[in-house]
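go over this record:
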Amino acid sequence: MWSPNEDELFYRYEDEMMAVPVVTHGGFAYGAPAVLFKGSYWTGGERNYDIGADGQRFLMIKDEASKDESGRNDIHVVLNWFEELRALQ
C-alpha cells in the first residue's frame, strides 16, 4: 500500500509490518526495507490493514490468539458522530 505522500510502500511480511522508501520522480527507485513493528494480526483477505491519512498510524485487527489478558475483543463503532459533534458546539 502506498503512503499518503507516496514516498513509501508498506507491506506485511509474516508478522512484520514493513516500509520501503521509494522515489517516483524521473523514474522509479527504492531503498532498503525496514521493519516498522511486529505483531500477530489478522491476515485474511487481500487488504487486511489500512493506513491513516498522516502515514503514521495503521488500522489492523489483532489475531484471536493475541487478545489481552482480559479476554476482551471489542470493537466500538460510533455512528452519526458528526451530528453529535455539531450538537456540542
In short: Helices lie at 81-88. Residues 8-88 form one domain.
